[in-house]
């Protein structure tokens, strides 16, 4: 076998490989001898089929198998001998004149070119030099009371009232919608409850029902939002013919131990404790996302190296596909977003490159520090996902069990979170108490990222 390096440019390597016909023929003969005791051909006893006859019957398929095996083995040795870590699978191209079946008859050298894209060598920074602020929010009694009040409002009893509907009342309606004078799918409903002021319908719909009385018919003029899910309706003007069936007013509700018991809590104090714990958990999740973003920004700034173009292209293709789907779903263009397609491509390519670089850094950190995700952890995560689909748990479980790519999509975020936890233990993390509004405020740079 002859191997000649033909390219060594950055992270790209290329080699010319020639395997002699003698080596291929020897491997093919060995494989044919193995088949002697396995195949059954009419007129021959098991194990007594002449090699020449086997070659006539199975020669092409055997040579195809030998060539594929030889290419894989040769590429594997090449990678091992050079100490390469591959970013992607090798690209193999047979030399001119060796396409089709010219190699499958035997007696010819195998010559091919192989292109490799390798992972860069990463020099990790000192993680103890990373300084990060962790935002902390103290859950106030007022926030707990406000949350319980919202729960109470959503559980208020309603009773039929005389007179006109007001904001806060519930009206029950039948309606038929028209766009350009034609009915549209999903534009009809009967005995639909509308809570006035809840903003649960198209903008302007609820407001035009204020003042209506039971038995009254009204014509409502509204416009679907530009971001409406059904893109065929997005931005369209619509008319709704509405009949008010009844008007109900919200009754009083006492926030006490009895109310808490209707929610499965033994007392109001216990309900407040539960609500406080849930709010604390929500704030902790938001704070975690911010501190993780800060950590990733610090890692990105501290590690500058070339990334494999193939990985960037793959990542960009996924990101760009989702961007185009989102725009199409919202019936929007790049101009609506205040940019051009070319500018957007450049921005999202930078995002793809950042993701690849950070992924390589996190993988390197995990490998050097033996951070692993156990099969039990993956199983628990799959079970949690399956629980999100009541009645279809077994189908979801079977899908992940049969689909390695899907299972990898579960393992990857678990690994990332483990590496992030490891780094936060080493980094200089200081806590800063802020308000709820400050915690959830999205800065322009965060939106861009």
TrEMBL record:
Transmembrane segments: none
Gene3D superfamilies named among the record's database cross-references: 3.10.50.40, Trigger factor ribosome-binding domain, Trigger factor, C-terminal domain
Predominant localisation class: cytoplasm
Chaperone found in the keyword field: yes
Location of the PPIase FKBP-type domain: 168-250
SUPFAM superfamilies: FKBP-like, Triger factor/SurA peptide-binding domain-like, Trigger factor ribosome-binding domain
Catalytically driven reaction(s): [protein]-peptidylproline (omega=180) = [protein]-peptidylproline (omega=0)
Documented EC number(s): 5.2.1.8
InterPro entries: PPIase_dom_sf, PPIase_FKBP_dom, Trig_fac, Trigger_fac_C, Trigger_fac_C_sf, Trigger_fac_ribosome-bd_bac, Trigger_fac_ribosome-bd_sf, Trigger_fact/SurA_dom_sf
Protein keywords: Cell cycle, Cell division, Chaperone, Cytoplasm, Isomerase, Rotamase
Pfam families, per database record: FKBP_C, Trigger_C, Trigger_N
GO cellular component, one term: cytoplasm
PANTHER family linked to this entry: TRIGGER FACTOR CHAPERONE AND PEPTIDYL-PROLYL CIS/TRANS ISOMERASE, TRIGGER FACTOR-LIKE PROTEIN TIG, CHLOROPLASTIC
Recorded family membership: Belongs to the FKBP-type PPIase family. Tig subfamily.
UniProt protein name: Trigger factor
Organism annotation: Xanthobacter dioxanivorans
């Amino acid at each position: 076998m002859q191997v000649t390096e033909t390219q060594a440019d950055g992270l790209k390597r290329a080699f010319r490989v020639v395997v002699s016909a003698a080596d291929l023929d020897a491997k093919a003969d060995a494989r044919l001898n193995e088949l002697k005791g396995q195949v059954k051909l009419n007129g021959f006893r098991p194990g007594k089929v002449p090699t020449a006859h086997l070659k006539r019957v199975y020669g092409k398929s055997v040579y195809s198998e030998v060539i594929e095996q030889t290419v894989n083995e040769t590429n594997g040795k090449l990678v091992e001998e050079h100490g390469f870590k591959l970013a992607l699978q090798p690209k193999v191209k047979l030399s001119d004149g060796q396409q089709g079946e010219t190699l499958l008859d035997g007696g010819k050298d195998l010559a091919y070119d192989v292109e490799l894209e390798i992972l860069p060598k990463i020099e990790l920074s000192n993680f103890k030099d990373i300084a990060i602020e962790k935002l902390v929010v103290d859950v106030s009694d007022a926030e707990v009371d406000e949350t319980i009040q919202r729960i109470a409002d959503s559980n208020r009893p309603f009773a039929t009232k005389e007179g006109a509907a007001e904001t806060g009342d519930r009206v029950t309606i039948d309606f038929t919608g028209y766009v350009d004078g034609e009915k549209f799918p999903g534009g009809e409903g009967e005995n639909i409850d509308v809570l006035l002021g809840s903003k649960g319908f198209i903008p302007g719909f609820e407001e035009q029902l204020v003042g209506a009385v039971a038995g009254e018919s009204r014509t409502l003029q509204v416009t679907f939002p530009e971001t409406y899910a059904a893109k065929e309706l997005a931005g369209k003007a619509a008319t709704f013919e509405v009949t008010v069936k009844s008007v109900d007013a919200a009754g009083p509700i006492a926030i006490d131990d009895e109310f808490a018991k209707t929610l499965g809590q033994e007392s109001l104090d216990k309900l407040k404790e539960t609500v406080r714990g849930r709010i604390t958990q929500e704030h902790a999740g938001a704070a975690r996302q911010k501190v993780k973003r800060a950590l990733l920004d610090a890692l990105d700034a501290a590690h500058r190296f070339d990334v494999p173009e193939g990985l960037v292209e793959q990542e960009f293709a996924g990101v760009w596909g989702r961007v185009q789907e989102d725009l199409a779903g919202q019936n929007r263009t790049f101009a609506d977003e205040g940019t051009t397609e070319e500018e957007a491509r450049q921005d999202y390519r930078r995002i793809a490159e950042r993701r690849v670089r950070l992924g390589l850094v996190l993988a390197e950190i995990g490998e050097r520090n033996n951070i692993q995700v156990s099969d039990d952890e993956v199983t628990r995560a799959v079970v949690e996902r399956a629980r999100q689909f009541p009645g279809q748990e077994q189908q979801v479980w079977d899908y992940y069990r049969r689909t390695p790519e899907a299972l990898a999509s579960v393992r990857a975020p678990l690994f990332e979170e483990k590496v992030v936890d490891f780094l936060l233990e080493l980094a200089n993390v200081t806590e800063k108490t802020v308000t709820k509004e400050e915690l959830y405020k999205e800065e322009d740079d965060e939106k861009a990222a």
